[in-house]
């Protein structure tokens, strides 16, 4: 049978060669899949990997696409490190957007500079509240947080749907399920580089996202709270012995990750859409789960993991548009890429031992 | 007497795990009908060796000879076919099944139940093992469960019975009963390999003993011809450090006062605590003896604050403060130190470094954190102080806790608590699974602490430890604490009776 054992030390040659091998294998697989299906594999790979990086404005858009993934992902990293499984970030993201949107729509004529910060705070509260529900149910009634947080996602999504079709629908939307546009003071502007102007869609939210990741990284590395998070994930007994309060920590982590998801929702709407509509997220709350694990639960690495996932997503879109490759095919390719990357990562950390199958041993 | 011949012989048996050599050319033999001791400290390679004899591990080099013929044992089933039986330290019995059902499950060829019952009764009478075949395992004491395990091996008519640290879970009386059984067994020609790190009992029960140290055979000796001191020296490699004497209680200040502490059982497997009363004076060490599972962990949780209740406890005052509602964190801030028995994932986190493990109980220390930001320099300084003062041998600068041996990690966690100079210290099993050198070191550190005026409660299953450390001892049995007696008035015989639930007072009346 095969056993994975932790390497004491990874030889340098492995550290270098394994990621290269992963990428080469992905390309080989790509060539194989695309040519079997009758597409020009060279062009397809170009659209996947080169095209999104070929121009400065496309690179900027990569950051824009990665922005919500980074914010949500870093919040999830905190939860997952503590062995708390918040799967409902998508719903928390929506509720954050709804809370912030409610405020923006209530002051259609304001031009106060305080509107955006207030929306940010409110989105954090909205997302945090939506995460508080599974948290309190878990702590008090020992419900399963995976189920509750996941199901609340559908509640949030339908709630937004009802709002934009019902009470919050714009009278000027010709019956489309859309709210009014936010006042300008409620929109996040693009970054205006002196002498260059704006680059692609690059907005200030991206700056916030990177800041959030770095702050969380600092918190995990340098603060007692970060230690608490790692400890509760490692051992409940040691955690209690240490004198921390487990319920409080669980609730805090849920609220922080929910709040961050809410903030991501608010930024997404205020920077890219400008009004509420039935679909404000393209599954960012779920994709962020992959981002968190791809980053090996390290908040700083979430920045890179977010960018990588954004690259694959944009590459997939680009290939679909340019070569009419069906979405399912790009999906398969994306899956293979992730699989090989994670497998390569695992192999640099662990080594495979082949052992003869042992008979089951009673008494021991 | 017929001449003994070697039943099992080990020739140059070696076993290595990676670069670590657990057994290095083990040479000795076990004669027919002999009780042979395998003596060594934790980590000396005893378990590795017997696992190879029982087929659980394969030797890297060397060979085993059975009645003079080389054999290869590929698994426990093959070992049993040769006639090798083994009783493990941790039993593998189903608590919800009866004795006879448990035995039936383990037999390779099925027998009709009535017949099996007859064999069981015959065997148990032959060896004086008194067990009712129809009782449920859950109703048996640990000693009785062990007898079921032995009985189960005996039904296979073994020629060699391996007993792995059999007395570690027994009271002194139960150990005596076990020795009677083993002697009877040896008289029938069955050999016994008796694994232990307790010198006295190895001397008492075995004819010869082989001493292992760091994976090598030091010597094989005739047990009656050596003293326990000589055995200890061979086992440790140097003269063991002696535990220093206690100065004794200095003051009459009562530091800890517990009365009417009750705790209902949370689960079917936990023991309720029934009306615990105890007080500890400054400079005093109170020992709490008892077999594991009689409420020790429940009591420890009540002392640390991991379990707390205002309603179930009448009085829990430490340093004059009612701490019934205090979290472990708050208790620590008052200068109470505590150290639970389990190192792995309770008093230490294996996957974390030593500095992180220091932080575990120092996160409220203003030197270590300012505004909740960890001050790494101070934390590292504190950690290296602990490592230095408590003689912790580390392989690297700041290693993972898991890379330390049990003894070193225990020295580290004990040091981590004692270096804070607590005014009250609660500790469970301070030297569990720790080699002799570290054991003496830890006990001396506890005595130093008491001499400085700290009030200490030591919960331990190790009677030798309690006699060395404690001023007075009481025994925890099924959640009840016996009346406390000064150490001078006690001996292991008396404590053993209390550990088995006998009421010493009523027993004394019977005798008079």
In short:
The complex is a heterodimer of chains A (364) and B (512). Chain A contains 13 helices and two strands. Chain A is mainly α.
Major sheet attributes of chain A: 2 strands, antiparallel
What is the architecture of the largest domain in chain A at the second tier of CATH?
Orthogonal Bundle
| Largest interface pair | A-B, 23 and 37 residues
Quick one: CATH class of the largest domain in chain B? Alpha Beta
Please describe what this structure looks like.
- The complex is a heterodimer of chains A (364) and B (512).
- Chain A has 2 domains: 1-39 and 326-364, no CATH class; 60-324, ABC transporter involved in vitamin B12 uptake, BtuC, CATH 1.10.3470.
- In chain A, 42% of the residues are buried.
- Chain A has 364 residues and is an all-alpha fold.
- In chain A, helix 4 runs parallel beside helix 6 (145-165), helix 5 (115-141) packs antiparallel against helix 6 and helix 11 (284-294) crosses helix 12 (301-323).
- Chain A has helices at residues 12-36, 41-50, 56-81, 89-106, 115-141, 145-165, 204-222, 224-234, 236-242, 246-273, 284-294, 301-323, 327-349; strands at residues 2-6, 350-354.
- Chain A starts with a strand and ends in a 10-residue tail after the last strand.
- The longest helix of chain A has 28 residues, at 246-273.
- Chain A is built from 13 helices and 2 strands, in the order E-H-H-H-H-H-H-H-H-H-H-H-H-H-E.
- Chain A has a two-stranded antiparallel sheet with strand order 1-2.
- Chain B is globular, with a radius of gyration of 25 Å.
- The two termini of chain B are 44 Å apart.
- Chain B folds into 2 domains: 6-236, Rossmann fold (3-Layer(aba) Sandwich), CATH 3.40.50.300; 254-511, 3-Layer(aba) Sandwich (Rossmann fold).
- Chain B has helices at 46-53, 76-82, 99-106, 113-127, 142-154, 172-187, 199-205, 228-236, 296-304, 328-333, 354-360, 376-389, 406-418, 436-451, 463-469, 492-499, 504-511; strands spanning 6-17, 20-31, 35-39, 61-66, 69-71, 84-87, 160-164, 191-196, 208-213, 216-222, 254-263, 273-281, 285-289, 313-318, 321-322, 336-339, 369-370, 373-374, 424-428, 455-459, 472-477, 480-481, 485-486.
- In chain B, helix 3 runs parallel beside helix 5 (142-154) and helix 13 runs parallel beside helix 14 (436-451).
- Chain B is of the alpha/beta class.
- The longest helix of chain B has 16 residues, at 172-187.
- In chain B, strand 17 and strand 18 form a beta hairpin.
- In chain B, strands 13, 16, 19, 20, 21, 22 and 23 form a 7-stranded mixed β-sheet that branches.
- Chains A and B meet through helix 8 and helix 9 of A and helix 10, helix 11 and strand 18 of B.
